[in-house]
Amino acid sequence: MISIGVFEKILPALLQGLGITVQLTIYSAILAFFVSFLIGFGRLSRFYPIRVVCSVFVVVFRGTSLLVQLFWLYFVLPQLGIWLPADLAGLLALGLNAGAYGSEIVRSSILAIPKGQIEAAIALNMTPGQRMRSVILPQAFRIMLPSFGNLLIELLKGTSLVSLITISDMTFQATTLRTNMNQHTPEIFGLLLILYFLVAYPLTLGVRWLERRLSTGRS
Amino acid sequence: MGWSWKFTLQILPQLLDALKITISATVVSFLIALVGGLLLAFARRSEVKLLSWVTGGFVEFVRSTPPLVQLFFIFYVAPHFGLMLSPFTAGVLGLGIHFSTYLSEVYRAGIDAVPRGQWEAAIALNFSKSQTWMRIILPQAIRPIVPVLGNYLIVMFKETPLLSAITLIELLSQAQIIGSNSFRYLEPITLVGVFFLILSYLSSLLVRRLESRLKINQKGLIN
Fold first, then answer.
1. Which residues from A are below 8 Å from B160, CB to CB?
2. Residue A140 and residue A110: Cα distance in Å, rounded?
3. Has residue B220 got a pLDDT over 50?
4. How far apart are CA A61 and CA A96, in angstroms?
5. Per the count of CB atoms within 10 A, which of A51, A145, A207, B72 is most buried?
6. CB-based burial of residue A53 (10 Å sphere; 0-12 exposed, 13-18 middle, 19+ buried)?
7. Ranges of residues in chain A whose predicted pLDDT is under 70
8. pLDDT digits (tens, 9 = 90+) for A174-188
């Protein structure tokens, strides 16, 4: 049924794809991080137009499906005269989508800081910038971390979708292997699931450890 | 290439037909997730250590791997064990199982939130185990989590485009077919996005109304 020789054929190809998967996760996570703060701050802006634009961004990216966004960037943009290479389309879709979810994390964490903290900062004659930098953000950041960790795991799982727009990530490698050695489909996809698990599970454990550490001394 | 309203009206009937498939896939997989999630929550509370341990492992594994790969696994591996599944069946099973692991956590939080006194009162009144669950615990556990379940229905709705990868002709693959036949992707794929946006927005308003009617605080149930 299962012979070791099969894995010698499958594993190298999947590991090659794993490299792309990990790279894509890291790059889109960096993009998502910046987008999260940009949009999150934008939604708390004093200026109404900025708030509206940022809210529209969040509603659009959260309200349509990630795969639809990916296809839109890959199939529709070229027809509007903007041609993106596949990997850039994948990176943008993943980063902007996760960024929209991340901006909610940023916004709610900042709003979770007790009012007294802000009042105290004003009483100490701090500028708005100082208030944000040295009082609000350090505290809000602790609240954000576990949620960002969960988002990173979602992002990693989301990268598998780019296999559908011809990027040769780990899932793409598996579907290619399947067309060449159909009789070993169970081994190919079984191993693929295990590899994803091995990458994602340490992240899950890390998030839990963070949650425990950050909640010490708080009820 | 600019937006053509004529073309939009021309393809609208086809897309609305495909939307029916998307909605039925959403409803069926949500029902599977509702039942599966409850079963997983029970199995996890089981006194049989092995059962609760295996269930815990299963939940962790499913939650840490991509739903798209799980769909491929079910759709392409089942035939190797003599089981031919239609794209729809494989799709709703895949999505249903994936989200049942999320819902099991939601149920668990709901069950844990029922005050201990309720259990004690049920014992004092000599209720059987099944009576206690069906009449006392579950009704009180599920009521507060209804809005959270509603949110997951919306999340699952937005995951259905993945089923296009296992050859189900739902909304997104219908749009792709129109695109490859007419060489116009702008209208079909944009419309798909608009459909999802409208439906998920309307549903989220409904969920919010439910929430305010049930007057609960869903802190800690969903991140």
1. 65
2. 5
3. no
4. 7
5. B72
6. middle
7. 1-3, 216-219
8. 999 999 999 999 999
